[in-house]
Amino acid sequence: MGRTAPSSGLAPRIPSGVSDFDAITGGLPPGSVLLLLGEPGAGHSEFALSSAAQLMRAFDHGRAPRFQMGASRAPLILPRQVSYLSFTRSREQLLSEVADAFPREYYETLSSHLDFADLSEAYFADSVVPSHWTGGHRSLLEDSPPSPDGVLPVLASALEGRSQQSLVIVDSLSDLLVRTSQRPDEILTLVKGLRRTAKNWGGLIYLLLARNVTEPRLEQAFMDSVDAVLGFLWIHSANRSARSRAMIIEKSMPLLSHVPSQFQGRFVLRVNQLDGLVTTQYERI
């Protein structure tokens, strides 16, 4: 069971661990499925990993970060673990990237708490990739061969076994959509079913998707099939040659209803090895 702050009579929320975002939104409803939709390098992966590290650090300290939640007085729930589901990367590769890009404590925290599901064997089973390139281990698939129906049943099984009161990161829908052997409508149906059942699991699920990896009509269908969409993009200043990362709440009834009108804009992000991902300012659009 995740740790919970004393009840205030309000519906409970789960903080993201990104302090300014939580202060403005009041956190996320348990059971939410979020689409993190980003331009390449704009911060959607960094948001997911920063969120995971910060929530597990809070869990280790035994308290939700109330001081980061602004005026919200809703009871806060902390996920009890982080599950990372990857189709193409290994646990070692992911943790190496965390060590290179984020504060040392992120690496240490995720090394201790990360429940990693390597789905590469199922993902590459019907491809030209030699089996030994996936590491020669079965991890999640030790008890059964790759599903003849493809990777989606394996993904559904991994989600069902790991998502109770957890933060789950699926990396990524982009990997599924670029496989010509995988029908996009089947991926979309799985996401719709996930949204329905996730309410019973009480955690958070982040689905990573690179913007423009699929046609606009299908991208919109995925946006319509989740509880919330956070969009990540690069912004350019007319007065400077530098560009910045930014995040926009593109969809979410529970979040946008808590955000005052003066904050209906975009979060400007900074990502570095000292601070991880933080918001540096809030801009009106």
Protein described:
The chain has 285 residues and is α/β, with parallel strands linked by helices. It has a single domain (33-60, 78-251, 265-284), classed as P-loop containing nucleotide triphosphate hydrolases (Rossmann fold). It is 33% helix and 22% strand. The protein has helices at 19-25, 44-61, 91-101, 104-113, 120-123, 151-162, 173-177, 184-198, 216-224, 253-256, and strands at 32-38, 82-86, 114-118, 167-171, 204-210, 228-236, 243-251, 265-272, 276-284. The protein has a nine-stranded mixed sheet with strand order 3-2-4-5-1-6-7-8-9, with helices on both faces. Strand 8 (265-272) and strand 9 form a beta hairpin. It starts with 18 loop residues before the first helix and ends with a strand.
Total helices: the number is 10
Low-confidence stretches: 137-145
User: Could you give the distance between the termini?
Assistant: 40 Å
- Mean pLDDT across residues: 87
Work out the count of structural domains.
Answer: 1
Q: State the CATH architecture.
A: 3-Layer(aba) Sandwich
CATH topology: Rossmann fold
Specify the helix fraction band: 25-40%
Structural class based on helices, strands and sheet pairing: alpha/beta
- Residue fraction in strands: 15-25%
Q: Give the tally of β-strands.
A: 9
User: What global shape is seen?
Assistant: globular
Give the biggest beta sheet. 9 strands, mixed
Q: What is the fourth-level CATH superfamily?
A: P-loop containing nucleotide triphosphate hydrolases
